[in-house]
Amino acid sequence: MRRTSLAAVSVVGLALCGVAAVATGPAPGPVKIGVVDQEKVLNDSTEGKRLNAELQKLRTSKMTAIDAKEKEISGLQDQLMRAPAGQSDDKREELSRQLKRRRVEYERLNDDANAEFQEAGGRAQARLISIFRDIVGKYGTENGLTIVLEKGTIYFASQTVDITGEILARFNTATPPGAASTPKNK
Q1: What are phi and psi of 36, to 5 degrees?
Q2: Which residue stretches of the chain have pLDDT < 70?
Q3: What distance, in Å, lies between the first and last C-alpha atoms of the chain?
């Protein structure tokens, strides 16, 4: 009797396991993880270096214009300070108004330059991140990865899961020198 109950319980248990397996679907395969250093890929890629050089060129040109305006202001300040005591009040007031206008121009120039640089930097970063995400997604799918993590947000990862070098190589392939608009599909 005891044997029969044990057999019945075993059959019911196996049946329940079968129902649970059907309800949850097939057991997932092993989890495959990839780790990538986004900053390294974006900074070391050919496209990242090209965009950074463009931003530096823009910054240099804006700083040249700002420096010229500063020199102009400095020249007017010197003129105002060294004005002879016998110079008319009208002449001094005119220099003072010119100085005030140049300072306003300087502030506008500085603000416009900062805004333009921020906008260009934002566009460059958005472009690089878009390409990066596309490449990482394709790489993960092609290599059966379950998840790809950013290296800077984890405390430890074995080198065996680091895919940064492979992503950097694909990034450079997707954005060859001189290709400034859209990446190649790979």
Answers
A1: -135, 140
A2: 1-28, 178-186
A3: 67
Q: Where are the alpha helices (DSSP H) in 25-162?
A: 38-44, 46-81, 89-142
pTM for the model stands at 0.68
CA 84 and chain centroid, separation: 56
3-state DSSP call for residue 52?
helix
Distance from C-alpha of 97 to C-alpha of 171, rounded to nearest angstrom: 54
Structural domains of the chain, with CATH: 2-174 (3.30.910.20)
User: What phi, psi does 155 have (nearest 5°)?
Assistant: -85, -30
**DSSP letter at 162?**
B
DSSP state of 33: E
Give the largest CA-CA distance in the chain. 128
Residue 17: alpha-carbon gap to chain centroid:
48
Neighbours of 118 (CB within 10 A): 10
Please give the angle made by the CA atoms of 178, 38 and 54, to the nearest 5 degrees: 35
- Cα three-residue angle 113-119-125, rounded to 5 degrees: 130
Q: What is the DSSP letter of 184?
A: P
